């Protein structure tokens, strides 16, 4: 874990080894402008605790992520925006440290583009899935 943290760009930003355009900081959370923005105001909110995926982060280190993303949306004046959090390469995660994107969507050309490949299902299949997931909650 220590070696992953040592090479993690977001951990280096948290420590101050790499500069950022810091928008918010608390004991457990840091928010800054994305250096490869999809639109004006695209920002990242990260827990200071290092973990690759959402399931690697303790709950108490996650509690500020959405409230800070909300503050960023308000501060940028974005009326349409996406809040995005990816886990794993197949899910488009590029940096192996949990982060939430707040991406303003000012027009069709800027911001996040999404495909929504709906899958066919039926009530019996959904009921079985519901029972499986519910039993593990």
From TrEMBL:
Keyword Magnesium: yes
The reaction(s) this protein catalyses: adenosine 5'-phosphoramidate + H2O = NH4(+) + AMP
InterPro entries: HINT, Histidine_triad_CS, Histidine_triad_HIT, HIT-like, HIT-like_sf
Alphabetized SUPFAM superfamilies for the sequence: HIT-like
Protein name: Adenosine 5'-monophosphoramidase HNT1
Domain HIT: 9-112
Single Gene Ontology MF annotation: nucleotide binding
Example GO biological process: nucleotide metabolic process
Entry annotation: catalytic residues: 99 (tele-amp-histidine intermediate)
Pfam families in the cross-refs: HIT
Phylogenetic lineage: Eukaryota, Fungi, Dikarya, Ascomycota, Pezizomycotina
Motif Histidine triad motif positions after renumbering to this chain: 97-101
């Amino acid at each position: 874990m220590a070696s992953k943290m040592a090479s993690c760009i977001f951990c280096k930003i948290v420590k101050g080894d790499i500069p950022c355009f810091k928008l918010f900081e608390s004991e457990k959370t840091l928010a800054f402008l994305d250096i490869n923005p999809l639109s004006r105001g695209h920002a990242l909110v990260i827990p200071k605790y290092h973990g690759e995926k959402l399931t690697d982060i303790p709950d108490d280190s996650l509690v500020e992520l959405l409230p800070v993303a909300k503050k960023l949306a308000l501060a940028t004046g974005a009326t349409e925006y996406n809040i995005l959090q990816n886990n794993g390469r197949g899910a488009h995660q590029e940096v192996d440290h949990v982060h939430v994107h707040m991406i303003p969507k000012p027009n069709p050309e800027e911001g996040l583009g999404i495909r929504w490949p709906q899958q066919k299902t039926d009530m019996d299949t959904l009921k079985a899935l519901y029972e499986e997931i519910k039993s593990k909650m």
